[in-house]
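DATA SHEET
Item: assembly model
Revision: 1
Owner: S.N.
Input lines:
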Amino acid sequence: MNTMDELLEDMIQDLYNAEKQLTKALPKMAKKCTNDDLKKALETHLKETEGQVEKLEQVCKDLGIKPTGKVCKAMQGLIEEGEEVLSDGKPSPIMDAGIIGAAQKVEHYEIAGYGTARTIADQLGHMKAAKNLEQILEQEKAADAKLNDIAMKSVNREAMQASGPAGRASLK
Amino acid sequence: MNTMDELLEDMIQDLYNAEKQLTKALPKMAKKCTNDDLKKALETHLKETEGQVEKLEQVCKDLGIKPTGKVCKAMQGLIEEGEEVLSDGKPSPIMDAGIIGAAQKVEHYEIAGYGTARTIADQLGHMKAAKNLEQILEQEKAADAKLNDIAMKSVNREAMQASGPAGRASLK
């Protein structure tokens, strides 16, 4: 790693691999949701993620680099954690709440990753790449906010109801 | 996973293990920094992290649960990614910029994790636990903002300077 351009290349390849992994993980999560809004949000984000993969390919073309070549270890761990949630019992509002927690961790990983890559691209004067990275960053932030919204408006309440007397008691 | 209390327990154990892992990783990152402000920020955050481990033990005591029993796979991946940065060449301002990127991903993981756990603790009426989790959340947000500040004020500029003619050209 000798230049900031090389660091940026490394970061973009990491994000590209992370998004590719996510396109495989999101359908599995959506399939287990009992809450319709959550299922729909994850399906919508899957389409967004597929668009982000294409946008990253464009960013790489503009920068004259290859998108492939890295395995994102952090996303592997995040997805493993999501799979732990999915394998722990049957689909339920409580599993939904766990899915939201896991998905928000994924979104935050990406928010940090795109934030740094966007700033470095901007500082290096790669304006088109910076703009594309900024657009993806805003999508990730919106996806995180949407998940928060679903947790607060319905899933957590449903999960309390499903938690037996102690959970229902805390709803008053 | 049958109740929201069990989900909360799982989330807190995940964060506890994540912080424990981080107390071992932060000194390695700090050791490789060439920028003094960055080194100091990571050392300060190590002390904060040690305090957070104790605070989580208190949270577990208040909730009548054990802090141990989980391995945080996501933090394992995040730390592996940080180690890739540290092993890629000699310490330099460019490595510093990579360290900041890796550390901000760690902070964002924790921001997502504590945000969810705090909300669920609050909704379950565990007010003391919710307050302690909120305090840790604010520390993580401040640590992320501090890293951003160091990147913008000094590290990225130093890294551009160290990137040869192309990097220096983008400084104008």
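QC remark: The radius of gyration of chain A is 18 Å.
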